[in-house]
Design goal:
Elements: H1 29-35, E1 59-62, E2 66-67, H2 74-92, E3 97-104, H3 108-117, H4 121-138, E4 145-148, H5 152-167, E5 171-181, E6 186-188, E7 205-215, H6 221-230, E8 235-236, H7 238-249, E9 255-256, E10 258-259, E11 267-268, E12 271-276, H8 278-283, H9 285-288, H10 299-303, E13 307-312, H11 316-329, E14 337-341, E15 344-346, E16 349-350, H12 361-368, H13 370-378, E17 387-389, H14 391-420, H15 434-444, H16 446-455, H17 459-480, H18 482-488, H19 490-511, H20 516-525
Parallel strand pairs: 1-3, 1-13, 2-3, 3-4, 8-14, 13-14, 15-17
Antiparallel strand pairs: 5-6, 5-7, 7-9, 10-12, 11-12, 15-16
Length: 568
């Protein structure tokens, strides 16, 4: 149900202003560490505050729950990875995070798919839901919970929400007649159809005079517009906000919220002839997984409403209009932010099973690696826009930024340290030159630059910051030429190598949200203790220790070999 994007763009590589070496009066690093009286302030490592997040409070981030009518595709991997990057970044910043994913297992489409396979709906969703949990495990996704809408806890929460809406007189019984898309699980007006189909291209069918319960959505038109006006950052990016404003200003009609023509859904309390409209069922997962309504000092009161929902643009209306209205009606606070990303194409064509161009994330991981796939999904992606996937761009990006730039930087630096510094980190380091200080200062500022981008979900800019930092460090090593210094000034060689190791420490710690396994392998090679890898350790108090034995360097990112050369 969720589609995604990737766009290619030239990597931004701002260069440091390398100047003629000029030394500063500075004590050795070892002495500085011994004499330091600096105390680490946790406020230095909080996520930057925004209009919709204070940067410190417990934080919930959610993927949409994925519809189980088919196997996972690249869009599911993309959304899950984006949420995982944000969740890991927040945790490394010291925040308490609840990262939620799951599967949406009710609805007419599921009932039809189960019937086509000759199995009952519960057996069908039990089998398919495993595929999505396996994908999360394969992609190294660190979700804290996985909700299934067929679980008893979830169904009880949804029915409680329904009863609350009834008690507040926002639900009434009527009849529905109109167009309905089984694929989208969505009602459409005549004016919304395009060439007789839904705006998404899905087939629609006419529902004739079916008894239905309705939610008084029309009663919330003014209240929603007022909320959008008072909370301009609730919907992102801004283009999606404009779409929602236009839709709501066009007038809201009451929403059909039950069906009688199929039975696979949560029963309406007090009326077993009806099952709830799948989107009320699905949307409630964001609070049912937190323990709503039975929460006494638990996760619901702890994490809600400081929640970020990340969704595909195809389900924007449900999350930006229906969900807020339902919460308003039930007197439940609204989540803080909704981010809707775009759709994928492949080699310029729409992705579809009929065209045979579906991108399978399992195949990508098996062929190229988990971290390589995660990196590519986050790199050069204007998060929020549509984009195009191609194998060529995948190979280019991984080979250039990971294998050639980061991998080679680690390999040649640590190989020189291993061979020329007695198989241990450099000793008697310093004094630092101006060029050394410039590079180190940039590395120390990387956390703040990256945090600003993550706080606004500009994940492509976060990745670009990491790529640029590595590129600057490669420029530094090429300028300083420690291989030449080995013959003329071994003390200076040791200092240059130390500076690069310290920069790599910052880079690897900050790369953990994007490429967690590879980043920790680099930290292992740098002999950074496993309990000194959070953002609180990005200070001079935790710089690379001198004289520590290091392991023999190993390659982290093997270059992807192709039969025909891929143009850069």
């Amino acid at each position: 149900m969720i589609l995604s994007l990737l766009v290619g763009s030239a990597t931004i590589r701002p260069l440091l202003a390398f100047r003629n070496p000029a030394t500063f009066a500075r004590s050795s690093v070892a002495l500085q560490r011994r004499c330091s009286t600096t105390t680490t302030s946790t406020s230095l490592f909080q996520t930057p505050a925004t209009l919709c997040d204070d940067g410190t409070s417990p934080f919930q981030i959610t993927t949409p729950i994925y519809y189980v009518n088919d196997k996972p595709h690249i869009g599911h991997a993309y959304t899950s990875t984006a949420c995982d990057v944000i969740a890991r970044f927040m945790r490394l910043s010291g925040r308490d995070v609840f990262f939620l994913s799951g599967t949406d297992e009710h609805g007419q489409k599921v009932e039809q798919s189960a019937a086509a396979k000759g199995v009952d709906p519960q057996s069908f969703v039990d089998d398919v839901s495993v595929n999505f949990r396996d994908l999360l495990k394969l992609m190294n996704i660190s979700n804290d919970a996985f909700v299934r809408t067929t679980s008893d806890q979830h169904k009880e929460a949804v029915q409680h929400l329904w009863k609350t809406l009834v008690e507040k007189e926002y639900i009434y019984l009527g009849t529905y007649e109109g167009w309905y898309s089984v694929r989208d699980e969505c009602f459409y007006t005549e004016g919304e159809l395009v060439d007789g189909k839904a705006p998404t291209g899905a087939e629609v069918e006419w529902v004739a005079k079916e008894a239905s319960y309705f939610f008084k959505l029309s009663a919330f038109e003014d209240q929603l517009l007022e909320f959008y006006d008072q909370n301009p950052e609730f919907i992102a990016p801004n283009s999606r906000r404009n779409e929602v404003l236009s839709f709501v200003k066009g007038g809201l009609r009451d929403l059909s919220v039950s069906r009688t023509s199929f039975s696979w859904g949560v029963p309406v309390p007090g009326d077993d002839d009806h099952v709830m409209y799948v989107w009320i069922d699905a949307l409630a997962n964001y609070i049912s997984a937190l323990g709503y309504p039975n929460d006494e000092g638990g996760d619901f009161s702890k994490f809600w409403p400081n929640s970020l929902h990340v969704v595909g643009k195809d389900i924007l209306r449900f999350h930006a209009v229906y969900w807020p209205a339902l919460l308003m009606a039930a007197d439940i606070p609204l989540p803080k932010r909704l981010f809707a990303h775009g759709w994928w194409t492949k080699d310029g064509e729409k992705i579809s099973k009929s065209l045979g161009n579906v991108v399978d994330p399992v195949e990508l991981v098996e062929q190229y690696g988990v971290d390589q796939t995660r990196f590519f999904l986050m790199a050069d992606v204007s998060f929020g826009s549509d984009g195009d996937f191609s194998t060529k761009s995948f190979i280019q990006k991984v080979n250039v930024n990971l294998a050639n730039e980061l991998g080679n930087l680690c390999q040649r630096t640590l190989s020189m340290v291993f061979k020329n510094c007695g198989k241990q980190t450099p000793t008697d380091v310093g004094p630092f030159t101006e060029a050394d200080e410039l590079l180190l200062a940039s590395a120390r500022g990387l956390r703040e630059r990256a945090g600003t981008h993550v706080a606004s979900q500009a994940l492509h800019k976060y990745t670009q910051e990491m790529v640029s930092m590595v590129w600057d460090t490669n420029k530094y090593i090429d300028t300083m030429e420690p291989w030449a210094l080995k013959k003329t000034d071994t003390a200076r060689m040791a200092t240059v190598l130390y500076v690069i190791m310290e920069v790599l420490r910052h880079v690897a710690i900050l790369y953990q949200p994007i490429i967690p396994t590879s980043a920790n392998q680099i930290l292992d090679l740098l002999c950074v203790p496993s309990d000194e890898r959070t953002f609180a350790h990005l200070t001079e108090d935790y710089m690379i220790q001198e004289g520590v034995e290091i392991p023999k360097p190993m390659g982290i990112f093997p270059r992807i070999e192709v039969e025909e050369p891929v143009e850069a």
